[in-house]
Design brief:
There is one protein chain. The protein is α/β, with parallel strands linked by helices. It folds into 3 domains: 5-155 and 281-349, 3-Layer(bba) Sandwich (FAD/NAD(P)-binding domain), CATH 3.50.50.60; 168-278, FAD/NAD(P)-binding domain (3-Layer(bba) Sandwich), CATH 3.50.50.60; 354-465, Enolase-like, domain 1. It has helices at residues 16-25, 47-52, 54-73, 88-113, 171-174, 191-202, 222-234, 328-342, 371-377, 392-396, 425-437, 442-446, 457-465, and strands at residues 5-10, 30-34, 116-119, 121-124, 129-133, 139-149, 153-155, 168-169, 183-187, 206-211, 237-241, 244-251, 255-262, 265-271, 273-276, 280-282, 315-317, 356-358, 363-368, 381-387, 403-409, 415-422. Strands 1, 2, 3, 4, 5, 6 and 17 form a 7-stranded mixed sheet that branches. The protein has a 5-stranded parallel sheet with strand order 8-15-9-10-11. A hairpin with a 5-residue loop joins β21 (403-409) and β22 (415-422). α1 runs parallel beside α8. The longest helix is centred in the N-terminal third of the chain and has 26 residues, at 88-113. The protein is globular, with a radius of gyration of 24 Å. Residues 5-335 form the FAD/NAD(P)-binding domain. InterPro entries: Class-I_Pyr_Nuc-Dis_Oxidored, FAD/NAD-bd_sf, FAD/NAD-binding_dom, FAD/NAD-linked_Rdtase_dimer_sf, Lipoamide_DH, Pyr_nuc-diS_OxRdtase, Pyr_nucl-diS_OxRdtase_dimer, Pyr_OxRdtase_I_AS. Its cofactor is FAD. It is found in: Cytoplasm.
């Protein structure tokens, strides 16, 4: 048995590494366990997000957006750019460099903050002991006053489409395609499916997205979903709803036949690459000994309360392995909250204001309640919308698709939700998050001065439109 730690974190993803750094900053003797290693056996920090998720996908999205924008719209700006080419292998190499820089940076932060890295697979034993099995099979056991479980999640695999190297891919494999496929199939019209479909559609792939649900982006406000569906169709994303994949067949090791059924019956398509993006599940297999005192629910998630405490005193769980949206920023905030609680401070995550973003172009972003949710709950509300087509800065940027929508309580005027489709919606949504965190009313935003000309003025105008006071669009006629 080694020296006892104040805190041991299992998992070095966005939840785990942030929790470890925060705990160390608060004077707690902290260790972080991570099993991921590269081909040379060196530790890989940052989890799914930094290595095969958020960061690499955004690198590809940014590269392909710049390419498409130059090819399709340079002439609008008076720029002559004939025969624009994309070097896909160089694009992928740039993505890999960004990932390497960021994951290496976490190692530097661990050293700077005094976090001990324990390399290997972590398992919680009884009495808050953590067993670490290294890559060479050696086992060590470490004791802790507190343990934070941050094991993350893995892609869901489906029997009709078993992963096949180079042809049927999960999100990690999709990020390493180094040649533009002529025909790309995607199973699932969620965040990953839409983002990866967008990447390759911009480079010329014929993209077909098969979504089992009959509705598109059911969790988003339907104004956002309808606008997004219209725009994706213009971008040649063939999104087929109610399409349930029933089987796949690899043909001559070069292409994939995909069988699916929809309202019209049995159908099939043939693609050069197939991405399976049907969601993620918590990675809790092998994480807990039977007598650890921590319980899982029927779906494999770790049971926790609002402050991420498990049933075992001194053991917390955060991120994708617990209830709530599987989002890196949610995991990070939970990690900070738990570290603060362990250090004796008061802390709480406000789960009512977790932003959601899909990084297509235009981007989709929202926070708070949708109109559908409020209607179903019987809440009286009022809405205001402002299109980017009426924004001078958006016109100057040649990026006028989409809108901002603000929803407020009809009686109290408190902002209940902010929803948007737009070029930089991922940045603008923070204004809605901050407003809701401070319990702002629509009037508070109306009375706030926004710089001109900026795209963010659309948030101001949408808030004004809640009470029919928008300046730069015609307001609804008062009844």
């Amino acid at each position: 048995m080694s020296d006892k730690f104040d805190v041991i974190v299992i998992g070095a993803g966005p939840g785990g590494y942030v929790a470890a750094i925060r705990a160390a900053q608060l004077g707690l003797k902290t260790a972080c366990v991570e099993k991921w290693v590269d081909g040379k056996g060196a530790p890989v920090l940052g989890g799914t997000c930094l290595n095969v998720g958020c960061i690499p996908s955004k690198a590809l999205l940014e590269s392909t957006h710049k390419f498409h924008d130059m090819k399709a719209h340079a002439k609008d700006h008076g720029i002559a750019a004939a025969d624009v080419q994309m070097d896909v292998k160089k694009m992928v190499a740039r993505k890999d460099t960004i990932v390497k820089n960021l994951t290496g940076g976490i190692g530097g932060l661990f050293k700077a903050n005094g976090v001990t890295l324990l390399q290997g697979a972590g398992k919680l034993l009884s009495g808050k002991q953590v067993e670490v099995t290294a890559a060479d099979g050696s086992v060590s056991v470490h004791a802790a006053e507190n343990v934070i479980l941050a094991s993350g999640s893995v892609p869901v695999e489906i029997p009709p489409a078993p992963l096949t190297e180079g042809l049927i891919l999960d999100n990690a494999g999709a990020l390493n395609i180094d040649e533009t496929p002529k025909r790309l199939g995607v199973i699932g019209a969620g965040v990953i499916g839409l983002e990866m479909g967008s990447v390759w559609a911009r480079l010329g792939s014929e993209v077909t997205v098969l979504e089992a649900m009959d509705s598109f982006l059911a969790l988003a406000d339907q104004d956002v979903a309808k606008e997004a569906a219209k725009l994706f169709k213009k971008q040649n994303l063939d999104i087929r709803l109610g399409a349930r994949v029933t089987g796949t067949e690899v043909i001559d090791g070069k292409e994939v036949k995909v069988q699916f059924s929809d309202s019209e019956g049995e159908k099939e398509i043939v693609v050069d690459k197939l991405i399976v993006a049907v969601g993620r599940r918590p990675l809790t297999n092998g994480l807990l000994a039977g007598d650890s005192g921590v319980e899982l629910d029927e779906r494999g998630f770790i049971k926790v309360d609002e402050q991420c405490r498990t049933d075992m005193p001194g053991v917390f769980a955060i991120g994708d392995s617990v209830r709530g949206p599987m989002l890196a920023h949610k995991a990070s905030e939970e990690g900070i909250m738990v570290a603060d609680i362990i250090a004796g401070h008061k802390a709480q995550v406000n789960y009512d204001v977790v932003p959601n973003i899909i990084y297509t172009h235009p981007e989709l972003a929202w926070v708070g309640k949708t109109e559908q949710e409020l209607k179903n709950a019987g809440v009286k509300y009022k809405t205001g919308k402002f299109p980017f087509a009426a924004s001078g800065r958006a016109m100057a940027s040649n990026d006028t698709d989409g809108f901002v929508k603000v929803i407020a309580d009809e009686e109290t005027d408190r902002i209940l939700g902010v929803h948007m489709v737009g070029g930089i919606a991922s940045e603008l949504i923070a204004q809605g998050v901050i407003a809701m965190e401070f319990c702002s009313s629509a009037e508070d935003l109306q009375m706030t001065m926004f710089a001109h000309p900026t795209v963010s003025e659309a948030v101001h105008e949408a808030a004004l439109a809640v009470d029919n006071h928008a300046i730069h669009i015609a307001n609804r006629k008062k009844r």
